[in-house]
Design goal:
This protein is of the alpha+beta class and 307 residues long. The protein folds into two domains: 155 residues, NADH Oxidase (3-Layer(aba) Sandwich), CATH 3.40.109; 116 residues, no CATH class. 34% of the residues lie in helices and 13% in strands. It is built from twelve helices and ten strands. A four-stranded antiparallel β-sheet has the order 1-2-7-4, with helices on both faces. A hairpin with a 2-residue loop joins strand 8 and strand 9. The longest helix is centred in the middle third of the chain and has 20 residues. The chain starts with a helix and ends with a helix.
């Protein structure tokens, strides 16, 4: 007798591979019991800072069945963004995830095709695609479905490829075979905690988001705190320090997604170029980039702060 659940699961995993996703794991949709007190505590301590959207839809964040009626499965996906080349050393730094085109658009297109393919091959399946743009606890679901463990820097880590990848989900009203969580392999390592320039990792596995350089350079809309001048280590947009020092990222391999390749001008920009950048150049070099999120004025503020 054909095991229909197994057949559907195999199809979904092979489609994920065809669409260029690095990994695919599946878990049963339901209430994230362990995450509820953690999220509540994090919010109560105001670790979200001005990211007020983190306070919204508390119940939906913890229960995907409130996002998709009758949902049965959460399909978690990883998409590699580790670049083959990095910026010149004499440069203000931007996070590697922002080198190429804005990942929201790149991944949304893949997910749209993925869902369409599932509906075409399996039948009437209802579902929704998510990529960092809705109240879904991406890392918790990815860990639950065995794609890695949440490390001391609160990023999802894997032994084979580190942590330079995006996480996305399809939430489906389809019964599938479920994967199991993997064990934690951080051990006694504290590299990320020791290296964080603003001590945002307040204890292992707990990050105060409002102290992170990524928060300051992207989310914070007002002036940067004067007392932190000199502690940003030349990061003008985002920060990769806790990932760069993580031993598991020795195993990162360059991505194969052409849309994540940077504008050639980006990698060669020197500090002087950044300081002299005009709004016109900004619009050309970062045409479809996530950097547009901070706007030219935000980038200008960050660069002035670093000088």
């Amino acid at each position: 007798m054909i095991d229909i659940k197994s057949t559907y699961t195999q199809f979904i995993k092979s489609e994920a591979k065809r669409l260029g996703f690095m990994s695919c794991g599946i878990s049963q949709a339901g209430f994230l019991e362990l995450e509820a007190p953690r999220l509540e505590d994090w919010l109560n301590k105001n670790h979200q800072g001005q990211m007020s959207y983190m306070e919204n839809h508390f119940d939906k964040r913890l229960n995907p069945t409130l996002l998709v009626d009758d949902s049965k499965s959460v399909v978690s996906l990883l998409l590699n963004y580790y670049p083959s080349e990095v910026q010149t050393s004499d440069s203000f730094k931007i996070s590697k995830y922002a080198y190429g085109q804005d990942y929201h658009f790149v991944i949304k297109e893949k997910l749209k095709e993925f869902l369409h393919s599932i509906q075409e091959n399996i039948g009437e399946v209802s579902g929704r695609a998510f990529v960092d743009s809705a109240p879904v606890l991406d890392k918790a679901w990815a860990a639950k479905s065995g794609l890695g463990w949440i490390g001391k820097n609160s990023n999802l880590l894997t032994q084979k490829v580190g942590s330079f990848y995006f996480i996305a989900e399809l939430i489906l009203d389809l019964d599938l075979e479920y994967d199991h969580a993997v064990t934690d392999h951080c051990g006694s390592c504290t590299a990320c905690i020791d290296a964080c320039p603003t001590q945002a990792i307040i204890e292992p596995y707990k990050v105060n988001g409002s102290k992170c350089i990524s928060y300051y350079t992207i989310e914070l809309k007002e002036n940067l705190p004067v007392e932190l001048k000199g502690s940003f280590e030349d990061w003008a947009f985002g920060c990769d320090v806790c990932q760069d020092v993580c031993p598991w990222n020795r195993f990162s391999k360059p991505h194969k997604e052409p849309l994540f390749n940077p504008n050639p001008d980006l990698l060669s920009l020197t500090k002087k170029d950044w300081e002299e950048i005009t709004e016109e150049t900004f619009k050309v070099v970062f045409k479809n980039s996530a950097i547009k999120r901070t706007k030219f004025s935000g980038l200008r503020r960050n660069i002035d702060f670093l000088k």
